[in-house]
Amino acid sequence: EIVVTQSAATLSVSPGERATLSCRASQSVNGNLAWYQQKPGQAPRLLIYGASTRATGVAARFSGSGSGTEFILTISSLESEDSAVYYCQQYNNWPMYTFGQGTKLEIK
Amino acid sequence: QVQLVESGGGVVQPGRSLTLSCAASGFRLTSYLMHWVRQAPGKGLEWVAVISSDGRNKYYADSVRGRFTISRDTSKNTLFGQMNSLRPDDTAVYYCARDNPQSGGFDYWGKGTLVTVSS
Q1: Which string of DSSP letters, residue by residue, matches A28-60?
Q2: What are phi and psi of B76, to 5 degrees?
Q3: Across the interface, do B50 and A100 touch by the CB < 8 Å criterion?
Q4: What is the pLDDT of residues B19-43, one digit of tens each?
């Protein structure tokens, strides 16, 4: 099983600043990594797939990068509505699509 | 438009069974992989099970293997998850999610249904 680790449990960033969330896989997942946003009481929402492609309707301030085992989600200019938990997920190792434990992003 | 609507959750005693449903609209289950994902209260996301687009292949997380069965009714375009021998640590919101092979990742999710296992 590929273990996916998100280094920060919580991240606190001021509005307008850049947020950088990290995700590491225990072995290479190539570019088969997705990021999700989950707000309280809601289902997760796909933000990024293929490590760097924004899903339909996702704001341009969200971007993804990385390959192999190291990945980053960047939110370029934080808005209050970006307060949420963010999960990364590898889908390289069919069918065991493992999630990271999540990073809670707080807006100062 | 694409929509997934789960139902069937509730409070159930340990050892009992429950069947979850996920009604899909706006697409055909026969064209996509479909997953169940769960989230225990205050915890992260845990992948539970997947069924292939042709319905032939089914896979399960170790935590539910032998107790959870994923299936579908293509005439009703509905996904199911039958849960047996329920345990308190099965308490969670259960989501169904569509896997988009053209893009990757789960592009549509239902709102979830809460299963509480308690005596």
Answers
A1: --TT-EEEEEE-TTS--EEEEETTTEEPTT--T
A2: -100, -5
A3: no
A4: 999 999 999 999 999 999 999 999 9
